[in-house]
């Protein structure tokens, strides 16, 4: 059995999972998919607009569900450049449970006891400390609505990313976009779900702060 990230006592105080289990918004019919999107002028323009975002921050609700390893938390994501980003998970009291800082030449993780760990593989480090498998490399792209390394993806009729399928050794990752924030320019994801077999990661973004 994998070790739980939070204690049972903490889990009782963690934000309700129901906040992340809201029914998905009905997106419009698929417009294009995969390489066919090369001919979708609006999608190409959207990709360029998203790639111009040089820095962004977002925060919200995080859930990781896999067998007995269930983690519910608040998250904060900060992205500054190609090799600089931060993922912070906190409990309802605001106490740090996991703090990942990735910088050029330095990858640091601080656990809930304040102990620091260093490695050249942040995803593996998080797995060793928490039992959670998080596809960090592509998550950076998926968060803003880009397909990352995936070539198999679908767009809706509004030329927004609807789903992504990325092959992986342990099984394909399936990313589903359930809602977008229309108050941002360009529109950015508001709810998304990542699945790999029985493994599920849910993210709900409360707000975005972007710089171009």
UniProtKB/TrEMBL annotation:
Major location (coarse): membrane
Matching Pfam families: LolB
InterPro entries noted in UniProt: LolA/LolB/LppX (IPR029046), OM_lipoprot_LolB (IPR004565)
Annotated keywords: Cell outer membrane, Chaperone, Lipoprotein, Membrane, Palmitate, Protein transport, Signal, Transport
Subcellular location: Cell outer membrane
Repressor keyword on record: no
Membrane topology according to the record: Lipid-anchor
One Gene Ontology CC term in the entry: cell outer membrane
Signal peptide: 1-28
GO biological process: lipoprotein localization to outer membrane; protein transport
SUPFAM superfamilies in the cross-refs: Prokaryotic lipoproteins and lipoprotein localization factors (SSF89392)
CDD domains xref list: LolB
Gene3D superfamilies reported for this sequence: Lipoprotein localisation LolA/LolB/LppX (2.50.20.10)
Similarity-based family: Belongs to the LolB family.
Assembly with partners or alone: Monomer.
Function: Plays a critical role in the incorporation of lipoproteins in the outer membrane after they are released by the LolA protein.
Protein name: Outer-membrane lipoprotein LolB
């Amino acid at each position: 059995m994998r070790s739980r990230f939070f204690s049972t006592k903490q889990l009782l105080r963690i934000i309700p999972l129901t906040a992340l289990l809201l029914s998905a918004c009905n997106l419009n019919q698929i417009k294009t998919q995969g390489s066919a999107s090369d001919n979708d002028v609006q999608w190409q323009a959207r990709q360029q607009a998203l790639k111009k975002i040089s820095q962004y921050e977002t925060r919200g609700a995080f859930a990781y569900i896999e067998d007995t390893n269930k983690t519910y938390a608040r998250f904060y994501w900060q992205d500054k450049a190609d090799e600089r980003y931060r993922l912070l998970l906190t409990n309802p009291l605001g106490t740090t449970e996991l703090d990942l800082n990735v910088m050029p030449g330095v990858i640091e993780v601080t656990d809930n006891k304040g102990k620091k760990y260093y490695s050249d593989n942040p995803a593996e480090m998080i797995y060793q400390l928490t039992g959670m498998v998080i596809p960090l490399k592509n998550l950076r792209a998926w968060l803003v609505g880009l397909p990352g390394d995936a070539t198999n993806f679908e767009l809706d009729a509004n030329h927004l990313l609807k789903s992504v399928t990325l092959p992986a050794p342990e099984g394909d990752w399936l990313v589903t976009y359930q809602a977008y924030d229309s108050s941002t320019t360009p529109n950015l994801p508001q709810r998304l779900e990542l699945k790999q077999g029985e493994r599920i990661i849910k993210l709900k973004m409360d707000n975005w702060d972007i710089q171009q």
